[in-house]
Amino acid sequence: PALIFMMILIGYPIIYNWLLSFQDLNAMSINSGSVKFVGLGNYKKIFSDEVMRIALKNTFIYTIASLVIQFTIGFALALFFNNKYKLCNHIRGLLVISYMMPITVTALMYKFMLSPDGIINYLLMSIGIIDRPIPWLLQESTALWGVIIANGWIGIPFNMLLLTTGLANIPEDIYESASVDGANWFRRFIHITLPLLKPAIFSVLMLGFVYTFKVFDLVYVMTSGGPVNATEVLSTYSYKLSFRYFYFGQGAAVANVLFLCLFVVSLFYLRLIGKEEV
Questions:
Q1: Residue (of 269, 261, 153, 271) closest to 205 by Cα position
Q2: How much is the CA Rg of the chain, to the nearest whole Å?
Q3: Per-residue model confidence as pLDDT tens digits over 145-190
Q4: 3-state secondary structure of 13
Q5: Within 10 Å of residue 182's Cβ, how many Cβ atoms?
Q6: CB atoms within 10 A of CB 87
Q7: Of residues 240, 241, 161, the one with CA closest to residue 203
Q8: Distance CA 174, CA 163 (A)
Q9: Which of 25, 62, 81, 241 could be a cystine partner for 251, CB 3.0 to 4.6 Å?
Q10: For residues 243 and 255, what is the distance between their CA atoms, to the nearest angstrom?
């Protein structure tokens, strides 16, 4: 039953999308009923388009920068909350609110916060970092970083929770033995925490990469890929080709490029996991 469910709801759309990417399907041909097979023609068109190269570059920059922010702060918070103290669980629960909120709500919230008269500019001007408001989402040089900051705020609790679970599974006896042998906190962190936490770290980075790489709603609500394609990513570009310009074949081709990128990363992750198990 599970296999049938997966094939109907996941397998069929993927196969249909691949078939669609080899056809010249647009608003004219879909009405006439005559669909022309073009082979790799759609892929040649999208890779000859400058917007596709911009979207591919923005997707990787957005994903890597978001992962660095999420993992670094999430790991630091996981280490902090791993020390048991009063109100630890309550504070950690409050931090999870950002992950539980709908992405569209977060996108709208940060859209207003990053506006020229938003609270972020107000705080930066109050402490003297800037002397005039910055239109974060309205200029090409800062728009992508505005979206990255919003995504980092969403993903930090996710990284914190998974890494906290991994830290909780490390036996305390190992740390006690290392302390008796004279190992300080840095040596315990390098030689005990990181090696034993490696499977959890790989899982967090892998899941974070997949969730971040295929982003759509956050970028679409905050900037819609603008200004001047400064925040255009593969998912928004595929959406625009399919449902704004009605080039369904080219939109399917862009979606397949996104799928292949994630597929390669998944194979790399499975290879790493296989080496660890051996």
A1: 269
A2: 23
A3: 999 999 999 999 999 989 988 898 888 888 888 888 888 888 988 9
A4: helix
A5: 7
A6: 8
A7: 161
A8: 18
A9: 241
A10: 13
